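To: structure desk
From: M.T.
Subject: fold request, one chain
Message: Could you run this one when you get a chance? Sequence is below, nothing fancy, just the single chain.
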Amino acid sequence: MQYNTGLVYTINEANPLIQTNIGNFGGGLQSGGDLAFQPGTGQLYGVVTPDFANFSVAKINQATGVASPLANPTGVPWTFGISFRNGIMYGVGGYGDVFTVDLGNNPLTQGKSTLISNNGLAMYGLTTSTPLPSTVLLLGGGLLGIVALGRRARKN
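Reply: Done. Structure tokens follow.
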């Protein structure tokens, strides 16, 4: 996704310098912020705006780049960042708002935000991390090794 346009690109993992334009958001929409994949479904979401005054979360078709905004704008000025944690979409705004986004099917609430807090800091992106299974195994193996060394030291 190219900032301030509706263009969507794929990036070659082997050579990031190779980028392919797969399409456009359509409908006069521009990129307003982050992209986020929903864990479990693989659905791609993005922050879109027609005018940099109204921001919405949209489902993005990964084959064509077409954005389908959710039923309602977030209602948060300068919505920039989105990310998932424990199945919930979180967002941040440029005036310090931290919120969740309703991804349900109710057309009256879908896409709207619920404010969690305002920290007064301008935030322009959001990310969360999920440990990879290999990381969990590595940490678990390391802990077992430490326990084994501790027991060995006690015996000596």
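Reply (cont.): The mean pLDDT is 83. Let me know if you need anything else for the meeting.
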